[in-house]
Task: structure prediction
Amino acid sequence: MPAIAVLGCMWGDEAKAKIVDYLGTDTEFVVRFQGGSNAGHTIVVEGKKYVFHAVPSGILYPGTKCVIGAGVVIDPISLVSEIQELENSGIDFNQRLFIDERAGVVLPLHRELDTISEGMLKSGKIGTTGRGIGPAYADMTARAGIRIIDLAHPSYLKRRLRELYQYHGRSLDNAGMKEVSQTLAMCWERLKGYVAPTFGMLQEAHKRDAGILFEGAQGTMLDRSWGTYPYVTSSNTLVDAIGTGAGFSARKLDEVLGVYKAYCTRVGEGPFPTEIHDELAQKIRIQGNEFGATTGRPRRIGHFDAVLASYTATLNCLDGIAVTLLDVLSGIEELKICVGYKLGKRVLSEPPAHPLDLQKVQPVYTVLSGWEEDITQARSMAALPANARIYLEAIQDLLELPVKIVSVGKQRHQTFNA
Result:
């Protein structure tokens, strides 16, 4: 079976987990390779809603093993809570969840630093979730961070904690050390059975041709190097991050699938060329339930942006795309797709690197006729209205990639191969 990467290719919230869930029926492993509990993946199965933050969404399939890779930063308190909630929902974790020993740790300190850093930025807030992900990644890069395997060595952990607090110009007295140490010790007691050297596990699985799905978090336009910097996440979200985040070279992948909404959304601050603010935006927001799974924040709404979509498709060397939430566009008379950016006298075919320039661009649109029909019962391309098919074909032609999967509703079964 193939090794497949499923990547969000805009600003996150593209319904990646739904596509992972759709493809995961016969998959042996689902792997998270970057991000932290700032990611919110939502799946609806038989009317029941599941929200994932750190646990890979493949856990819904009883025979699937889930791996949290070394490139993820884990809030152990949050993860313990998430596992408990999922177990209360009837999900069995026994011999099914594996956490790489090298994964970073998010501490309560990091949440505090996250809040402080947002308030200190003079040029405007980034719009983080406040979960401490950025400061935790910064500490890992500075070699001051804590790794999950450190929790197994109490004396070493205490020394590292004192050094970390000193690094941030903070003191940690005996009472504070006792509180942090006891909390981490309780978390370790709950999580240690899941901690494992996952590198060999995935290599062995690949050698015997086991199915492996790599589940991206956030989206390509939030990549800290190639996204709309500085309004980005704190990890690399591209396909190449699988190698550094899971120890599985992207060269071994059989397929890379990019996930795009049928329109665009963004949470937080930063440039958004096709953003709309009128009644149409509110209609799409309500029909698509466009509120963050992690924060509950209303998402910003925009027309489909083929300029950014082509850019992210090239960055990730996609083999095909999945288009989600197509049903949300039913009942809209005219649909716009951005096919170019006008900046001064120039028309750009790719996004400028500076956020001020991206903020200034004027989208060049092509306009297509919409459809009135409810498409939530469609299970094939042929069952879609003609204008819905034309809309998908336009996206396909502009990206020069095949639309391989289409989603027309929240439920697991409302997804089909194109």
The two ends are 20 Å apart (CA to CA). The chain has a mean pLDDT of 93.
